[in-house]
Amino acid sequence: MQLSELFSQWIRPYVHKIYHSDPVEVDTAEQEITDVLTAGGVDPDDAQALQLMMAYYALQRVLFEKDQKRYHVVYAEALRQFTDPPAGKLSSLIQRRFLLQLRILAHYQGIERLNREDFHELLDRLPPDERHTEQWHFLTTFAFQQNDARCIAEAYEVFLNYRYPRNTQFLWRRLEVMHKLLGRRATKLDLALLIEAASDEQDLNEIRVILWPAFEAQNLVDDHISQLMLRQQAEKTRVRPA
Questions:
Q1: CB atoms < 10 A from the CB of 28, how many?
Q2: What separation in angstroms does the CA of 36 have from each of 18, 48, 50, 84, 221?
Q3: Is 74 in a helix, a strand, or coil?
Q4: How would residue 220 be classed by pLDDT, with cut points 50, 70 and 90?
Q5: Is residue 18 a contact partner of residue 26, using CB atoms and an 8 Å limit?
Q6: What is the pLDDT of residue 165?
Q7: Helix axes 116-123, 89-108, angle to 10 degrees
Q8: Residue 51 and residue 6 in contact, taking contact as beta carbons nearer than 8 Å
Q9: Together in a domain, 1 and 115
Q10: Which domain holds residue 42?
Q11: pLDDT (tens digit, 9 = 90+) per residue, 184-212?
Q12: Which of 75, 91, 123 corresponds to the end of one domain?
């Protein structure tokens, strides 16, 4: 089975339920996938790949539901699955692709520290052409907070050499700003353009939490920038879906 088929048939509906349905519906979706796996007849490589993605997104569910009591247990089980021998090419790809994201999440939750050496060891297991947009988001956020110019520069080179869909404009504008901030070359215009590229409240929250302190440290926040941020926040809140 192709990764795209696996994701569209099982994982995307499950992830949608995590963020948009009540816990009972999420439990039902999990059970449906478990039933498919236990019934047999699924290629071992496909089955392991599906189990790995379920383990990763189960951790996302615990985070979303703020269930700290279960987080350590769910993380330990996910980590065990991600270090099992892969059954084939697809499960190997999923392991390489999501293990680093798993470790980054654990680092943010204070469960297991991820130092720069381990970060690059895990990153080097995954060639650049196997890193997808969500992954670049994880990697560059962590790298920026660790002042890791190597990872930011590598991601920025990808940005300069490949075309990406328009809906990723904020992601790559954000990356450009990170690259400039680490080189102390960012300007007020860069921040203004980033704020204007934000498509929703989540984008604005990323600016505020991740990048704003660096802009303040480099004396790039003034009244105009602050007012622009407030206007964007008001606008994105006004158009929030019901």
A1: 11
A2: 19, 12, 10, 21, 53
A3: helix
A4: very high
A5: yes
A6: 56
A7: 160
A8: no
A9: yes
A10: 1-123
A11: 999 999 999 999 999 888 899 999 999 99
A12: 123
